[in-house]
Amino acid sequence: MYWEADKECMARDDLEQLQLERLQSTLYRVGTHVPFYKKKFDELKFNYDDIRSLDDVRRLPFTVKQDLRDNYPYGLFAVPLRDVVRVHSSSGTSGQATVVGYTRNDIRTWSNLVARIITAAGVTKNDVIQIAFGYGLFTGGFGLHYGAELIGTSVIPISAGNTKRQIQIMQDFKTTALVCTPSYALVLADAMMEMGINPNGLSLRYGLFGGEPWSEAMRQEIHQKLGIIATDNYGLSEIMGPGVSGECQQCNGLHINEDHFLLEILDPVTLEPVPEGEIGELVITTLTKEAFPMVRYRTRDLTRFIPGPCPCGRTTRRMQRVMGRTDDMLIIKGVNVFPIQIEKVLFEVEGTEPHYQIIVERENHADKITVLVEVMESIFFDEMKKQRMVIDRVKSRLSSELGVNVDVKLVEEKTIERSEGKAKRVIDKRKL
Amino acid sequence: MLKIRNLDAGYGKLRVLKNISLHVDGGEIVTIIGANGAGKTTLLHTIIGLIRPTRGEIRFQDIACAGEAVGRIVAAGCVLVPEGRQVFAPMSVEENLLLGGYPLQKLQGRAAVQSELEHQYELFPILRQRRKQLAGTLSGGEQQMLAMGRALMSRPKLVMMDEPSTGLAPLIVRDIFQIIQRLRREGNTVLLIEQNAKAALGVADRGYVLEVGKVILQGPAADLLANADVQRAYLGREKIE
User: CA of A114, closest CA in chain B: separation in Å?
Assistant: First the structure.
């Protein structure tokens, strides 16, 4: 099932033609309308005529989060404020807040692109969708809302939080599709257990998850606990919000809406393209945004392109679900460590829960990494010997996976703080 | 059907088209809007082969045709309805149409030309009434219809029209745009150049906005109509709210 078959299944050459046309006109617009880019382009002595193929995008400068902060609030808008019909903003928890804007056309495009993703995940107008992403300045709630409404799905704009009420409504309103972060899906599943509700008795069939990195094992767990098809979707407010890419029911990577976004995957250190199929930092150029176009925005998200076509028939390129952030990338004794690798191991070791926290400290000028792992009640209250065994198993698996030695501490079930939004996995005490 | 990448063209040292990329798919009406001197006509003349591009790629039906002779491009199925009609004034209406049928006659013979002539008379009944009249004595609107009929006589795959509404009375302009829509319904593909941006975007599927030889905006016609820059610059509308 496609939302826009003519766009999602385009011949590659037609798609590249469209991308080039849109790239050329976008660059001309940002270069003349946005002083920040005009200055950057002038400094580079950049000539619009030099963009003759999609690869020429590499001639352009990057945009980073700090540029958005420096131009707070409206400095990077490419249209006058009177043409802006919506403003969203990041939370600003990790520094100065950033602001993004949308024209009427941008909102229309946004709705349409999210509709593609929701359709790809299997949801139709006959479904009832519960949107447990936050509404408000955060783009997640509104983005999914518009897409679902465009399709004609019955939308429950419940927003984030209040787990008991979420479950109550899910039960009473016969929700068939759930939108939230994957970690919150597990929170809901656990709460259902506690409340004595059997998830199989619900009408729930689809889960559309996004907003944070998660693993294949976590997908399996959600699938088992809630009995739903769990698909991933990706977006970020700087680019548009949800709608950049999303999985079809094959669950084999996220189809990128390439007719609206040009994606590159670069080595985060050298900033050169990584070989096809290898992991790197995702860099995005918007091709149709009017109010807030971005040129080579460094997302700091780590992913890779998945080679080969998808059996679903879409011709758009796929990316792997985001595997972490370049900022989460911990450099421990010179080794790059991604939290997602730890999660993968925990799913493989029996008796552990996929809830963990990584604590990084510096002791006597040496980095020390400790992983707090929740274990099942049975093991926690078991004899020391068994606990020891679990610790040793996790430790050896982690050490071989990461290439550095780690300490492992077991903690009781549900002692690691659950978040209703993005889970906080890493506490780096070195910087404090 | 038509794909253009990084096209540069001009006259002597004057560079008019600067790195233009655009495409037209089969069955679409695509419009190019822009002010005087933006390069719209130069673009059509470059596609049809009247001007040789200095750089870039034109592919019609997946065949590279940048720099080809006009005759070969027309024979491949790409025709132009020129600005200001350019009908052959001292010839009759029917003679004008038959001239347009010349490429068809070479390919498919006289019978095909006769049946196509009949088809054009159905499309433009006024031309049947005036068939023996000299083209120069027709009104502006009738001449425009004749120019369109003449172009269609070759059963082209792509019809390019250069400002078909110029100098015509508003009622006639409406007729012309209705005919363009009818052409699409009959399976034709149209690349339309217009200063009358509102009317052109009203019938088109997609549009490109040309400014001093560059494509500054492109997208579905509905998006362009809703774009505030287009509204201000080309639709003469500034909503005061």
Answer: 18
